[in-house]
Specification:
This protein is of the alpha/beta class. Helices cover 43% and strands 14% of the residues. Strands 1-2-3-4-5-6-7-8 form an 8-stranded parallel barrel, surrounded by 6 helices. Strand 5, helix 5 and strand 6 form a beta-alpha-beta unit. Helix 4 crosses helix 5, helix 7 runs parallel beside helix 8 and helix 8 crosses helix 10.
Length: 281
Amino acid sequence: MKTGMNLLLWTGAADKTHIPLIEKIASWGFDGVEFPMFAPDKSPWADLAFVLDGYALGRTAVTVLPEGTNLIGDDASERKAAVDFLKTCIDACSELGAESLGGPLYSPVGRLVGRGPVEEEVKRCVEGLRLVGEHASEAGIMIAIEPLNRFETYFLNTQSDTARVVDQVGLPSVQQMYDTFHANIEEKGLGKAIRDAGKRICHVHISANDRATPGEDHINYHETFAALKAIGYDRWLTIEAFGSWLPDIAGATCIWRKMAPSEEHLAKNGLAMIKELWGKA
């Protein structure tokens, strides 16, 4: 098991000015850094990779589909744009040395249509993810499809929803993510959801129910970690948190109040909780 810290707590676009932050994350005891990849062609990935290598830090990446792209939409041009965007992200992951790309890679976050998903959308999703997954396979990168809560998407809300799509895609490079924040809202049982998804889970976000410091919230991490150990999970446990420090991200996550004493407090205390409870699980 490896521990990571998502840079979304500080920035939506990492560049050379974040090198001192990367150095801090290494000093706090994390094994790796997770990079937001919202504009994959605009960050100095190779330069950041050089710094990360110097600290022996692993790396992963997350993204969301921008407006004008939609893997499940009616518009064929938007579906193609989504595939092209995700392929560009995969190429950026290769340059960065990231081993996985995760997120809700099927539809823009917040897109709600007043109904649930239909079979045609599932078919489009599977077709698009096969194209993306083939590109990821060639690059040696894992795709981690993330279900979101019902207030952020209508398409994939649970681990079982996501497992159905993953199984239909049928590629080893396309698996799924487990996020404690979304699971806390949508799953009837945390442990059961993890065990049912099983080996399909290739990435885990540790995110508090209030999006602040993991361990200072009410999510049952004991049950979560025990279930992850039961399925033999040994990949990343990455803290994903948000705050009011970044207006654009605060607006997207609807966080308007100070959620933690500081970013450093959130990262260091969250990491300490993970190490303690994972060891006890």
